Amino acid sequence: MSSPAFFPQDIIIRKRDGGALTKDEIEFFARGVVNGQFADYQATALLMAIFWRGMTPQETAWLTDAMMRSGDVIDLRDLPGAKVDKHSTGGVGDKVSLILAPLAAACGLKVPMMSGRGLGHTGGTLDKLEAIPGFRVMLDVPEFRAILQKVGLAMIGQTPQVVPADRKLYSLRDVTGTVECIPLICASIMSKKLAEGIDSLVLDVKFGKGAFMKKKEDALTLARAMVAVGKAGGKPVWAQLTAMNQPLGRAAGHTTEVIESIECLKGRGPADLMEVTLALTGHMLVLGGVAPDMAAAKKQMAAAIANGSALQKFREMCVAQGGDPRVVDDYSILPTAKKLLEVKAPVGASGFVSEVDALKCGHAIMALGGGRAAVTDKVDHAVGLADLIKIGEPVAPGTRLCTLHINDDARGTRAEALIREAVKFTPTQPPLEPLIQDLIT
Ligand code: URA
User: Quick check: is 390 catalytic?
Assistant: First the structure.
């Protein structure tokens, strides 16, 4: 190996002392974590220095660009049509991608979506898709392109060649207390999205109990940083700020979320989930130039749901990716839990639901075996929550709070206790917090 132009320790010391790094130093870092010139212990020392000292918008943009170029950058310029993706910072019951991607494709966009797996209390799109028998998410880039061209959407996992620097850095951050750092989160997310070959991007930045960012101010800072990095990379990025205090929709898990997503494509989705999905898809249609404004986008989306073309795109995606398309009409082919357990409001319950704690609901899914504590864990697709009550709905003794899909009685009992802790009541109708709180363009 040739001797490096920089010494990692000099870069670490400058950041430790509050200085700004140069473009070349940042590029050396992103390359070095992949080729070994930056040892793991040096990379984690620098990550911790960045955690405490932060990065300027310019450093963040350089880091994003350097990470993006640490591996393959997919070039989709020869594919006709606007290539627009959406990324969510994750939450409980967030199945928006499963509805939005076929809907946007039915309206004329190309949606090249690379998603992740669930970790901790939040679910992952890839795991949900894998609940569909046969569905393959690990496709190589030529197959990804071919499906995108033919169907208009493809939903896959990140290939090992795309942004290897993030793979390394994220695994180090995960075990060194350096995940919650806005410049690092921004570079991690945006490097992966910009490597997909997109023309523009819509972000759904969640905040609240069930989200990665608990406080709205932090979500806003992250949203602004990501929009700025997109601009620096020459890609328009819009970021929506969405509250995630209660789960989105009435289902959380894998099979249960696939069913709810298909119901949305059939025009029978819950109001909150449809509100978020239509807003994000609408922004994609406007950014991609297939709708002049949000009002026109709403009409196109309503037509695509009413005439069945969005549902048809979902079927076509299943066929192209090896999944059984009969799932659209027959939910019994999805992995099914052994038992259903209804959790009911206790004696003495009255008034309205004031809280459905998304974090506790996420923990209930983990208790059932539907979550992942470590990246190598297997998830049980069949278990989860359905029929979940929402904030503001009336309760009386015996009102159903949710239906647990369970495969093990002891796990079911633990999940039931968590749901009982999650749902709280109030005698008077509580004020409803707006779900969508901001749009940064
Ligand atoms: N998701 C990512 O992809 N990266 C982060 O750093 C945080 C969330």
Answer: no
